[in-house]
Amino acid sequence: MEILWIILKIVIVFAVLMVHVMYATYFERKVIGHMQVRMGPMRVGPHGILQPIADGLKLFFKEDVVPEQVDKRVFYIAPLICLISALSAVAVVPFFKGFAIANINIGLLYIFAMSSLAAYGVVLAGWSSNSKYPFLGGLRASAQVISYEIAMGLSLVGVMMMAGSLNLTDIVMAQSRSPFKIYLIPQFIGFFVFLIAMFAETNRTPFDLPEAEPELVAGYCTEYSGMRFALFFMAEYIGMIVMSCVGVVCFLGGWNGPFDVPGIPFFWFILKVYLFIFLYYWVRATLPRYRYDQLMALGWKVLIPLALFNILLTGTMKSILG
Amino acid sequence: MDSNESAARAFEPYEIQMGPQHPATHGVLKLDLELDGETVIGCKPTVGFLHRGVEKLSENLTYAQTLPLTDRLDYIASMANNVVYSNAVETLLGIEVPERAKFIRTMVMEMARITGHLLWLATHALDIGAMTVFLYCFREREQLLDLFEEVCGARLTTSYTCIGGVRQDVTGHFLETLHKFTEEFPSRVREYETLIDQNRIWLKRTQGVGIVSAEDAVSLGLTGPSLRASGVDYDVRKHLPFDAYSEVEFEVPIGKRGDVYDRYRCRMEELLQSNGIIRQCIEKLPPGPIKADDAPDLVMPLSKKCVLADATLTSGVIKLVEDRKHYMEGDVYVSGECPKGELGFYFVSDGKGRPYRMHIRSPSYIHIGALPFLCKGQMVADVIAIIGSLDVVLGECDR
Q: What is the rounded CA–CA span in Å between residue A309 and residue B351?
């Protein structure tokens, strides 16, 4: 029975997540559209509400073009690595009290591991395409993700120190017991570093260098089309949602809110996640793109020292306050 | 294997072909880049993918028939090409354009400059990743294109001028709408600036990138804002005034360092200056004829039927009286300040109704020639910023 219950949970989370991914694309196009004095999708259904379904169908029925000189096996596997590792990361996220597919004690480390694995998908996609622009995109992705992984990991060390646990549920519980109720206030340096690393980790503007359109055409996914391209696309959006979840769990107090909404235990969680997602879109509509060397300089010379300082500060405060 | 061979194999540049189908080369420009990591060590531009032989075609067409071809040079600001071309032919024919036509020409040329610069800003910002500026710019550009449509019936391929004047007079409604546009346009420019002018990422991407000194800029043959950003004060409108430019007041913005940021600032200042010129033109617009009395006659058919009936017409659509007495023999070079730089027309005439030879000095062609110099030692992402900052258009480059 235990196993059936877990499978049921997985199916529910997967289905709900996929719907959210679909409508995250719609939400993005609408938000950016209105920021750019236009309407966004309007044609399919009222206010273009069915646009994601139309997009999905189109991508699904597209011809699957595989260029002749690619390394076929790796080329097929790469998008799957991206998608599966992104999906696996969702398993440990506590959406509301007592609801996580796997409530494991190393939850935070597990999420880092999964998001690092996703980088393999990007690198292998760039490599196996046997084409110049994807190759450059893949190289950029590997350097970028490795650098920002460190910054992100270090930025969350402060949270781990305060909560005394790597279990995401425990982190939320510890937060509700802390004086400010959320770790955003005592950990504002960590949050700042996390926020920037979050954008880089998911390859979003202003750090979308692996797929920088004006420079590298479409970066690592230049040679991909149809459903395989859609897999990368989904992986990116799931990655965004996962990173938002981590942000919500570690800094914004998880499922806790100013008051309880009866019947919808995940209300505050979803709201906060969408706050982050909106931030992603807002930044995309506002900022230009960094250059590769500037991105590396920001990661190594600013974010990592800042995160280390935050650890030092947290440790000092903890020992002073007992 | 001898040691020379192994040394040569130790380092091989990564060759990459940017274009002709590439999202950021502004048309069908192809760059053969040699990379060391992400650093460009060699850059070879290839042009000619859009070659239509305008110069050769013009030898078989009358002067009036070549005018529509000039629309297709810098198709982003075709009004400016029309004006410069007409000026060149009028110099050859010795025709003096009436005052009103001169002011109208100045006005539409500055409108063309704003449309050209807006499209430049839109695509340049998009290349660097700021996608919202793109759509904001198109909003204002659209208003100007609508005005073009009102005055001549076409939005892009205008062919508005004719030899000896302009085709149609401007209406009161046109002037009113344009005046309203000039009133709100400065606030729009400030709106673009709020998005990128103080943005740290924008400054990092543009300042100190693609620097060209004043001497280099002159010897590379740069003109227009790309030259002035390096600190060289040269503007055809100011130094060899044509049309009504001697009667309007404006400043020529000059840069200092000659990097991508200065070129960007120069063009942003020019947007405001052009706006001022348009306002002055509207205020000072004198009454009178819009076409010179001694302009060559264009016999336009009344309807399609007429053309079919009159089989004596040589071209079927346009008949230009070929045997005019005062077509000058000899050479003439006339240039004008277009949005991209100095556009010049060089005619060799043997006294007939069509040029013996025509050469177009297109700024884009010369600017692309400066790319290898500018791109060397920069990053791949900078190449995109530099192409954008030079503001090339391939229709004009390939002619």
A: 81
Question: Are A289 and B201 in contact, with CB atoms under 8 Å apart?
Answer: yes
Nearest-CA distance from A286 to chain B in Å? Answer: 6
pLDDT digits (tens, 9 = 90+) for B340-365: 888 889 988 877 777 888 899 889 89
Peptide bond into B98 cis (omega under 30): no
Judge whether B91 and A167 are in contact, CB under 8 Å: no
Percentage of chain B modeled with pLDDT above 90: 3
| pLDDT (mean) for B237-265 | 86
Chain B contact set for A290 (CB, 8 A): 201, 204-205
Cβ of B38 within 8 Å of Cβ of A136? The answer is yes
Q: How many residues does chain A have?
A: 322
- What are the helix (H) ranges across B59-130? 63-71, 78-93, 99-128
Q: How many other C-beta atoms can be found within 10 angstroms of the C-beta atom of residue A264?
A: 12
pLDDT of residue B34: 86
What is the average per-residue pLDDT within A71-93? 87
Alpha-carbon Rg for chain A, nearest whole angstrom, is: 20
Q: Inter-chain contact B381–A205, Cβ cutoff 8 Å?
A: no
Give phi and psi for B166, each to the nearest 5: -125, 160
Q: What letter does residue B321 receive in the DSSP assignment?
A: -
Question: What's the pLDDT score for residue A127?
Answer: 84
Answer positive or negative: Cα dihedral of B334, B80, B211, B229: positive
Amino acid at A92: V
Contact A276, A247 (CB under 8 A): yes
Query: What's the distance, CA B89 to chain centroid?
Result: 18
| DSSP per residue, A94-106 | -SBTTB-S---TT
CA distance A12 to A18: 10
Cβ-based interface (< 8 Å): residues of B facing A: 14-17, 22-24, 38, 125-132, 134-136, 139, 195-196, 199, 201-202, 204-205, 379-384
Alpha helices for B153-234 (secondary structure H): 172-196, 200-206, 214-220, 225-228
In angstroms, rounded to a whole number, what is the distance separating the alpha carbons of residues B79 and B111? 8
Report the pLDDT value the prediction gives residue B247, as an integer from 0 to 100: 86
In this complex, is the C-beta atom of A212 within 8 Å of any C-beta atom belonging to chain B?
Answer: yes
Q: What angle do CA B179, B185, B191 make, to 5 degrees?
A: 165
- C-alpha distances (whole Å) from A52 to each of A26, A59, A86 are 6, 10, 20
Tokens of A277: 């997602």
- The tokens describing B109, both together, are 């040329």
**A230-239, A256-265, B6-15: which has the highest mean pLDDT?**
A230-239
Please identify which residue in the block is written with the tokens 């974010």.
Answer: A303
- Alpha helices for chain A (secondary structure H): 2-35, 51-61, 72-89, 107-128, 132-163, 168-177, 188-201, 213-216, 226-251, 267-286, 292-297, 304-321
A283 in contact with B at a CB cutoff of 8 Å? no
Q: What is the 3-state secondary structure (H, E, C) of B114-161?
A: HHHHHHHHHHHHHHHCCHHHHHHHHHHHHHHHHHHHHHHCCCCCCCCE
A34-41 LR contacts (CB < 8 Å, sep 24+): A35/A282, A35/A285, A35/A286, A35/B132, A36/A285, A36/B131, A36/B132, A36/B134, A36/B135, A36/B136, A37/B135, A37/B136, A37/B139, A38/B135
ipTM for this prediction: 0.80
Q: Give B301's pLDDT tier (boundaries 50, 70, 90).
A: very low
